[in-house]
Amino acid sequence: MGESAVYAIKVAITVAATMAFVLAIATLFNLVVVFSGNTALGEIIALISVYLPFNAGQLFALVSAATTAILAFLIAQKVYDLITYSQKAA
Amino acid sequence: MHIIRKPQFKVSCYILALVFSCLLSISLLAPESYAAQADYTFDDLTNVPVNVYTFCATSYQYVDGVHRYIPDLQTTETPVITSSVGDDGVRRNYFTIHPPTGCSGPWGISEIYPTLWSIGSGDYTSYMALTSSSFFHGATNLTSNLIGYVNNTTYDVMLHTGGWSWYSLARDNGFDLDTRYAFTDYIDEDSGYLVTETISFNFSQDGLPDDVGAIYGSFGSTCKYIDEGGIWRMGYFGSESCPLNLFTGHHVSELFTLTLGYSDSADDFIIEDTDDVSGLPTLDDALEVNTSLGNISLSILNPISGWLSLFTDSQCVTLSVLPGWFGLGSTQVCSPWYNNIRPVLTPIFNFAGTMLIFGFCVSWLRGRHGFDNTVHLESHL
């Protein structure tokens, strides 16, 4: 019983730390995007979009969704490995 | 160290994790219900076509004593309406409006066009749209309630967005403007940006003309104009006289004029001509809705989504920074491709991209691109 509690706390702390880490990275990226959205970089990307023969917004939204799904899969994989390794170690 | 497990169990765990993630994201993104007008129930507007024209205000200028935002990145969105019945038994219709791609500053809705159908004798079902010009700041998406209900004698419409709303009631078969209307704004005193806006009014008429094909309203031309540089400007945070036009099919009439005044105080944004606003949404109601709608999204899990969102679907973009390096003013650059090329190539590229990603995922799951160096499904199949 005690080992289960310690195991649960370990998992909780690990997941919480990982989420904070990912959130920090994403926040930093998004901050850069916010500050670059209305500047030269944002205009360059907008210019590229205009010169592409397809709706770049739609296509990259699809890519964004796919990468989000893959990231979710990878995170799920890691969480699964974390739990199973911890169980085996316990 | 290689841990060997039954692949079926592992795959099941992955699928369950993905399903759980999807359900969690859906629950986080679901709009909050707005129960302030529980006296009405409304039709299912799932199939109502709605066009929303949005723009981004990349900067503003102080012209003639008025702060004028410069709309940019103007795009058209056709939101999908979802309809549901809440716990209070009231059916509400929602749609989400996104800011223009690449917009990180204030943005707004220039026009919203739902459609009015089949006005005639006997039973009719119709929906009304009101359009407006408004700004938002800081919100990534706006989830709105579009609520409409019509029978032989009553016509109710509510178009509501978090942080902004049009609210109208038309009773007794018609559209004659009642004297009651209210306009409430709230300005963030720190940032100076518009946070919430609510407009409410009632009107009624003895009958509807048979040839009514559409009803919509908009702020008049005095609220926006084309300047010498060809840029569509909008005066909002200035003392302006903005006539609200309500169009009824072939008949166009100006019903009343709203006067918007700039102030740092939220209370000063209540129009003084308001006669009776009892029972109408208050500032607290608007603030409650504004705070109840969050910006939680799974996109925080994807660090590159912000970068990818900078790509736009627009045929033309207005550049201001890059031309400024060469001593030029704002310049509009349009796509060199014909307009009918994109609708053809876009689905092709989308399909190709989807197949590429799907193929990658399949090959990955079959073990050809192992990321963990432990277990590949192929070795167990």
Give structural notes.
The complex is a heterodimer of chains A (90) and B (381). Chain A has helices at residues 2-37, 40-51, 56-89. With 90 residues, chain A is an all-alpha fold. The model of chain A has no long low-confidence stretch (mean pLDDT 76). Chain B is built from 5 helices and 18 strands. In chain B, the strands form 4 sheets. Chain B has a 7-stranded mixed β-sheet with strand order 3-4-7-8-9-11-10, covered by helices on one side. Chain B is extended and about 55 Å long. Chain B starts with 6 loop residues before the first helix and ends in a 16-residue tail after the last helix. The chains are: A mainly alpha (90), B alpha+beta (381). The interface between A and B is large, with 56 and 60 residues.
Low-confidence stretches of chain B: 1-5, 23-41, 63-68, 114-189, 191-300, 373-381
Low-confidence stretches of chain A: none
Percent strand of chain B: 25-35%
H/E element order of chain A: HHH
Number of strands of chain B: 18
* E-strand count of chain A: 0
Major beta-sheet overview of chain A: none
Radius of gyration of chain B: 25 Å
Assembly category: heterodimer
Q: Categorize the overall geometry of chain A.
A: elongated
Head-to-tail CA distance between termini of chain B = 21 Å
Major interchain interface with per-chain residue totals: A-B, 56 and 60 residues
Strand order of the largest sheet of chain B: 3-4-7-8-9-11-10
Total count of helical runs of at least 4 residues of chain A: 3
Relative helix content of chain A: over 70%
Structural class of chain B: alpha+beta
- Return the structural class of chain A: mainly alpha
Throw out a few tags for this protein.
heterodimer, A: mainly alpha, 91% helix, B: 381 residues, alpha+beta, seven-stranded mixed β-sheet, six-stranded antiparallel β-sheet, 5 helices, disordered N terminus
Topology at a glance:
The complex is a heterodimer of chains A (90) and B (381).
Chain A lengths: L1 H36 L2 H12 L4 H34 L1
Chain B lengths: L6 H23 L21 E13 L2 E12 L4 E4 L5 E7 L9 E7 L20 E3 L5 E9 L4 E7 L2 E8 L5 E11 L6 E11 L10 E5 L4 E3 L5 E6 L2 E9 L2 E10 L22 H10 L12 H4 L7 E4 L1 H5 L5 E4 L7 H24 L16
Parallel strand pairs in B: 9-11
Antiparallel strand pairs in B: 1-2, 1-5, 2-14, 3-4, 4-7, 5-6, 7-8, 8-9, 10-11, 12-15, 13-14, 15-16, 17-18
